[in-house]
Amino acid sequence: MKRGKRYVAAAAAVESGKTYDVAEAMKTVVETATAKFDESVEAHIKLGVDSRHADQQVRGVIVLPHGTGKTLKVLVIAKGVKADEAQAAGADYVGGEDMINKIKNENWFDFDVCVTTPDMMGLVGRIGKLLGPKGLMPNPKSGTVTMDVTKAVGEIKAGKVEYRLDKTNIIHVAIGKKSFGAEKLTENFNALYEAILKAKPAAAKGQYVRSITVASTMGPGVKVAIKA
Fold this sequence. Notes:
The strands form 3 sheets. The chain has a 4-stranded antiparallel β-sheet, covered by helices on one side. A 3-stranded parallel β-sheet has the order 4-3-5, with helices on both faces. The protein is of the alpha/beta class. The model has no long low-confidence stretch (mean pLDDT 92). Helix 2 crosses helix 8 and helix 3 runs parallel beside helix 7. It contains 8 helices and 9 strands.
């Protein structure tokens, strides 16, 4: 794969084979994010578990100390008082069966997170095949199936992120923007990393964290030293 001059120059600033401590890694990521837009910064953490086994799943949510730098659009599917609460909490879209029909009939997905109340899950389940593949299906584990819609909307707007294993046993999470600077990115990363350590499954054997890489949208990967 041919790389552009900007990427090649940025990659030259990353020492080959070196693992950086977290603060140094974030400083390097910021310095090598040279695109003309405010690049996102992602952490990629490979774990020594097998996502094919239910007892080795790693999944959870965390509100990052400094948010993600991205304003998420929230859809709340609720009725009555809970719909009113969602509206007051700042949800971008609120509705019941009308929203479900809009998604089903108009292929409408102008939202990043879907929150619903338990009593609406029967209806939401009807469009599970549409929401699921896009990662938009509400789930109690991620706090998106709840009666406390005010808290759910507030946390999402404040920078709550979900972390979960992909099929290759890697967790990919956006931890902020280049403009955050190294210090805030470090604090966000440390909060995420602590949450992942606490989520270690009892069935996990051997080395839990295998590798960590952080990178900006257009920049090179920077390897981070694994800490217990």
